[in-house]
Amino acid sequence: MEVATSPSVSAPPSPPRALRLLIVLGALSAFGPLSLDMYLPALPALARDFAVPDAAVQLTLTSCLIGLAVGQLIAGPLSDRWGRRVPLLIGLAGYLVASVLCAFAPNVTALTGLRAVQGIAGAAGIVISRAIVRDLYEGTAAARFFSLLMLVNGLAPILAPVLGGQLLRFTSWRGVFVVLAVIGVVLLAATLAVVGETLPPARRRRGGLGQTVGSFGALLRDPGFVRPALAGGFAFAAMFAYISASSFVLQKTYGLDPQQFSIVFAVNALGIAVLGQGNARLLRRRSPSALLRAGLALCAAGGGALLLSVLADLGVAAVLVSLFALVSSIGLIMPNSTALSMSGHPEVAGTASALLGLLQYALGGIAGPLAGLGGDGAALPMALAIAASAGAAVAVHLWPVRRGGRDAA
pTM to 2 decimals? Predict the structure, then answer.
C-alpha cells in the first residue's frame, strides 16, 4: 500500500500490523450499520410488542442516528486534545452499557432515549477510526485505506440484518441488543490489543471550546472540505432513507418476510463491498475526485429509477434493482468523499472527522423520518426522499467554487 511521507503523518504501521489495524478500524467504523441495521427485520414486531405506530418505532432509528452525530462532535475534538486511544476506549465501554440497557427497555420512549445514548457512545469508534487513518495516511493512500475499510465495514450491513433475521427465529428484538452488547465486549478487547496511540503529545491541540469552534468555522469556509463532505452527506441521507423505511415498504407493500428482507438487504450491502474494493483498484489509474463523480452518477441513477418504478408501479423487481444501484454507489462515494474532505487540515483530523460525521448523520436524520411519512409501508415517500437526497448530492458536487478556494473535489 502506498504511504504518505508528510511530516504531518505518523509513521505508517508494518504490513502485518496494518492488516490487524484494518480489521479493527473497519469494525469500529461499522458501529453505525451495526447499531442501525441488525434490528431492522424486527421493527414491525417491535411496533406490535409496544402497540405503537410504525412512525414511533422508526424514531428509535432516528434517535440513534442523532446520537451518532452528536457523539462524533464530542469524541472528535476530544481525540485531537487527549489522543485517540482514551476517548475510543471510553466510547466502547459506554456502548456496551447502553446496549445492555436497550435490551431491558420497558417502553418505546425509554428505548428511543437509550438508543440516543448508544449512538453517542458508538460514535467514538466511527469518528476516531477515520482520524487514525488520517494520522497514518494521506491523499491517494488514505483513499485506498478507506476503500479497504469498506470491505470490512461492508460486512456489517451484509451480516447485521441477516443475523438479526436469524436471531428473530429464536429470540425477540431484545436478544438483538444482547448480541450488540457482546460485540461491544469483543471490540473493546480488540482495541486494547491492537490499536495504539497514533497522535503523539506534540501534535495534540491544547485549546478549549473556542479553538474547537474556530476549527469548525475554518472547515466550513473551505470548499475543499465542504463540497465532498456534503456530497457524501446527501448520499448517506439517501442510504438512511432506505435503511429507515425499506423494512416496512418491502415487507408490507411488496410482501417479503423478515428472512427475505434480510437477504435483500445483504445483497445490497454486498454491492457496497464490491464497489469499495473496485474503488481501491481503480485508484491506481483514476483520481478520488473522478471516482466520486462516478459514484454520484450511479447514486442519482438509482434514485431516479426507484422513483420511476414506484410511480409507474413497475413491481418489486424494478424496485430491488434500483435500490441495488443506489446502495452499491456508496462503495464509490464514501471512501473518496471522506479522503477528499479530510485531505486538508491534518492538524485537526479528529475535528474534521467529527464535522464530516455530523453532516452525514444530520442529513440522514432528516431523510429518515421523511421516508416514513406515508405510514403503513407506503413506498412513495421513501422513493421521494431517496431521489431528492441523491439529486442533492450531485447538485452540491457540481456547485461552482469561487476562485482562490481549495477545491479538492
Answer: 0.74
